[in-house]
Structures are given as C-alpha cells and as structure tokens.
Amino acid sequence: MTPAHDAVILAAGGSRRLGRPKQLLRRDGETLIARVARLVLATAPARTIVVTGAHREEVAAATSGLDIEIVTNDAWTEGMASSLRAAARSLAGRDRPVLVTVVDQPALDDSHLRALLDAHRDDRDTVSAYGDAQGVPAVLRASTFARAATLRADTGFRRLWTDADPRTVRADTLAHDLDDLDDLRVAVAAGWVDTSG
C-alpha cells in the first residue's frame, strides 16, 4: 500500500538553454507537465503542489481540471531553491513524506514513482540514482522537506542530504533531462518526446 504522502512538482523554470518551455513539450500528445502531474496523481497524494514561475499561464492551462494546487514562485529566476522554498511554505506543518518531481525527465514512468514510495521508510530520505548521481524524483521526510525553506541561490535539495545516506532506487534513464537542444534530440530519438515537440 502506498504510504500517505504529499507531492511537489517543480515546473517554474524558464528553459533558457532549450529556447522553449520544456513544460509544454509533448510525449504521446500530452504536455510534459500534464504527464508528470498525471503520474504523480496516480500515487494518490493527499496534496499535490505544482510550483510555477516562467510560463505560469501556459502551465496552469495545461494542468487545468487536475486535482492540484498551483503555487506561483515570483522569484523563479533565482533557481530551484526558490521553488523549493515556495513549496516548503505551502506544506509547512504537515507531517508526512513529500514526493518531489521535476518536468524535464521525459523517461519518467509511474513504476519508478511507486518503487520510490514502496522503498521509503521514516529513517531516511529515498532518492533516485542514475549514473553516479542521486536526485529527483525523491521522497523526502517531512523534516528534510521543511529544511528546504533554508535553501538559497540555484541549489537543489541534494544539499539537504549531503551529510546523510539516503536510500536509493536506481533508474538510469532518468539521467537524460532536457537542458538544451542536444538533450531534446536524444529524447526525440528515444521516443520520450514527440518529434513536433
């Protein structure tokens, strides 16, 4: 049984290097933001926060009708830390783990999210492993996620577990994200993003 949890989808970035909103790229005709929201909602979170910033109107339109809460990050140009702070404020005082995802891992599937939640225990955070890296998606303890309110500049929550030993669930395809046009070409060739974008 999936443990009780909240969820956060980080979707505020400006996609500067890509040159177009990665949130609105499509896979099988579905925008990536709508796809990630659908996969996350399938895990039955109690609350689902989508943090928007750049392209906020388009992201909100793409997720219209879904059981989510939009949180606007006006400081999105500061980087991921500002979005994590905004999400942490929205979930302040809640004592349950938080599933955190981003929109630019087009190979993400629901089986990996379920594996993360199934592996999670209260003794430590549970994060994805790909290549030599650890990161999102991740299931963070409430105490860890509360510390996201202290993050500054363009730092992600990896900083929150640098002194810890998180539990890992491997998914090497998630190493492929969508930072630039080369990444987009790889994703299209793999069938993770529609040819027309």
What characteristics describe this protein?
single chain; 197 residues; Spore Coat Polysaccharide Biosynthesis Protein SpsA, Chain A; two-stranded antiparallel sheet; 6 helices; 21% strand
Describe the structure.
The protein has 6 helices and 9 strands; from the N terminus they run E-E-E-H-E-H-E-H-E-H-E-E-H-E-H. The chain has a single domain, classed as Spore Coat Polysaccharide Biosynthesis Protein SpsA, Chain A, CATH 3.90.550.10. It has 197 residues and is an alpha/beta fold.
The CATH superfamily is known as Spore Coat Polysaccharide Biosynthesis Protein SpsA, Chain A
Q: What's the CATH first level?
A: Alpha Beta
- Tell me the β content: 15-25%
What is the CA–CA distance across the termini? 36 Å
Number of domains: 1
List strands and helices in order, with pairings:
Layout: E1 6-11, E2 26-27, E3 30-31, H1 32-41, E4 48-52, H2 56-62, E5 69-72, H3 80-90, E6 98-102, H4 110-119, E7 126-130, E8 133-140, H5 142-146, E9 167-170, H6 181-190
Parallel strand pairs: 1-4, 1-6, 4-5, 7-9
Antiparallel strand pairs: 2-3, 6-8, 7-8
In short:
The chain contains 6 helices and 9 strands; from the N terminus they run βββαβαβαβαββαβα. By secondary structure, the chain is of the alpha/beta class.
